[in-house]
């Protein structure tokens, strides 16, 4: 495959080094960052200066029905990242990418931000660029929901779609298109969420710290999905350092190659309905070394569980939340977590992104997924 990406920041903007590791020189990276640890002594403001200031500090909520219905006795808490102002966990990272790039002098007034995304980073960047006054172009694959596209467009961002058939690294694919736009547009910068260390560091510095603080340090398992790998690598690494007994679990759709050992990824699934998690290449930001266990999940189980989260727990969440909860419940059962144990599950995005997709009964029926909703406790952990 042609290599479209070189490491570092050059006149083509910040681009990924496919196949190499994200720089994890934490101290060096942190010293150039405007964000450090969460300071718990600073009270939350009564009035926020702008929408970006609302990002983070999301609530942890207990699940009261779903784990119990499956006979699980451990406590399952969900981290409500869908309550961020742009509607997803990616708001945190988009803001930090922008802040760090401004601080490093890579991004200057009048510049254009160009980013490949499955939509949530795009929405986070679109919001931040609307507020800060940058032109923003987001490249998304064909399968991404119209809801995400419309949100970005409403925020003033230009959206480019790439064909579902195109390999991500081909000239007409996701990264190839970003590369072309960066070359064509003067002063265009790709902050590159797939390889930028500011991505995992966001979660290392904030999301993981919040979870640890909210749980008073008692977390037996933390479960996430992986798209760029930023959340799982950042949260996983922080927990390995401050709470090494906490198990770090990844939930990965069939059709993706993130699971480890690699043999668990074997499947004939070619299309992943769930947006935002799983690819057929390993992003630079994904550090599989901090993940203790992976669970593979089918679309029907993910979507069935996402609908249960909405119907039974009243949480207005998106599709990958279903994947991640299925992975969490299976892993908790396999690791025999019982009374007194605590599992934290990251819920990345919101129902708003999928109103015409899995939230719509007709859409579910047309794809044969309705049964997964109707049968409630179908045998999803046997698959
Ligand atoms: N779920 C959804 C819906 C997402 O959009 C993303 C980000 N692509 C993730 C999960 C995974 O986050 P990360 O990129 O940090 O791995």
From TrEMBL:
Catalyses which reaction(s): L-homocysteine + L-serine = L,L-cystathionine + H2O
A single Gene Ontology CC term = cytoplasm
Q: What Enzyme Commission number does this protein have?
A: 4.2.1.22
Q: In terms of domain of life, where is this protein from?
A: Eukaryota
Q: Which GO terms describe its molecular function?
A: cystathionine beta-synthase activity; pyridoxal phosphate binding
Q: Does the keyword Transferase apply?
A: no
State the Gene Ontology BP annotations: cysteine biosynthetic process from serine; cysteine biosynthetic process via cystathionine
- What enzyme class is recorded for this protein? lyase
Q: State which pathway it belongs to.
A: Amino-acid biosynthesis; L-cysteine biosynthesis; L-cysteine from L-homocysteine and L-serine: step 1/2
Leader sequence range is none
This protein's UniProt keywords = Amino-acid biosynthesis, CBS domain, Cysteine biosynthesis, Lyase, Pyridoxal phosphate
The cofactors required by this protein are: pyridoxal 5'-phosphate
Q: What does this protein do?
A: Hydro-lyase catalyzing the first step of the transsulfuration pathway, where the hydroxyl group of L-serine is displaced by L-homocysteine in a beta-replacement reaction to form L-cystathionine, the precursor of L-cysteine. This catabolic route allows the elimination of L-methionine and the toxic metabolite L-homocysteine. Also involved in the production of hydrogen sulfide, a gasotransmitter with signaling and cytoprotective effects on neurons.
Q: Name the family.
A: Belongs to the cysteine synthase/cystathionine beta-synthase family.
Full protein name? Cystathionine beta-synthase
């Amino acid at each position: 495959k042609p290599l479209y990406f070189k490491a570092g920041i050059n006149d083509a903007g910040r681009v990924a080094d496919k196949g190499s590791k994200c720089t994890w020189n934490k101290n060096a990276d942190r010293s150039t960052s405007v964000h450090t640890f969460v300071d718990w002594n600073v009270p939350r403001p009564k009035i926020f200066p702008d929408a970006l200031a609302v990002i983070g500090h999301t609530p942890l909520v207990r699940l009261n029905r779903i784990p119990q219905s499956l006979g699980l006795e451990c406590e399952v808490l969900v981290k409500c990242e869908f309550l961020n102002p742009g509607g997803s966990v990616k708001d945190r990272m988009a803001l930090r990418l922008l802040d760090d790039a401004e601080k490093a002098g890579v991004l200057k007034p009048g510049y254009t931000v160009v980013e490949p995304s499955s939509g949530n980073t795009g929405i986070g960047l679109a919001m931040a660029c609307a507020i800060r006054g940058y032109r923003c172009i987001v490249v998304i694959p064909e399968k991404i929901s119209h809801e995400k596209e419309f949100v970005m467009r409403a925020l003033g961002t230009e959206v480019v779609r790439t064909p579902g058939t195109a390999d991500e690294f081909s000239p007409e694919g996701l990264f190839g298109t970003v590369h072309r736009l960066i070359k064509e547009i003067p002063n265009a910068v790709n902050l590159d969420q797939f390889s930028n260390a500011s991505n995992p560091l966001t979660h290392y510095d904030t999301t993981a710290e919040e979870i640890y603080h909210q749980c008073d340090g008692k977390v037996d398992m933390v479960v996430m999905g992986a798209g760029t790998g930023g959340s799982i690598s950042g949260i996983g690494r922080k927990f390995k350092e401050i709470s090494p007994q906490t198990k770090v679990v990844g939930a990965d759709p069939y059709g993706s190659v993130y699971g480890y050992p690699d043999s668990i990824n074997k499947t004939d699934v070619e299309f992943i309905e769930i947006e935002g998690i799983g690819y057929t290449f390993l992003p630079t930001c994904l550090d599989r070394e901090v993940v203790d266990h992976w669970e593979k999940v089918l679309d029907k189980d993910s979507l069935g569980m996402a609908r249960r989260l909405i119907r039974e727990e009243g949480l207005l969440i998106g599709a990958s939340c279903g994947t991640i909860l299925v992975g969490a419940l299976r892993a908790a059962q396999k690791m025999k977590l019982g009374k007194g144990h605590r599992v934290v599950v990251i819920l990345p995005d919101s129902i708003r992104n999928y109103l015409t997709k899995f939230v719509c009964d007709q859409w579910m029926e047309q794809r044969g997924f309705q049964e997964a909703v109707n049968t409630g406790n179908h045998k999803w952990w046997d698959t």
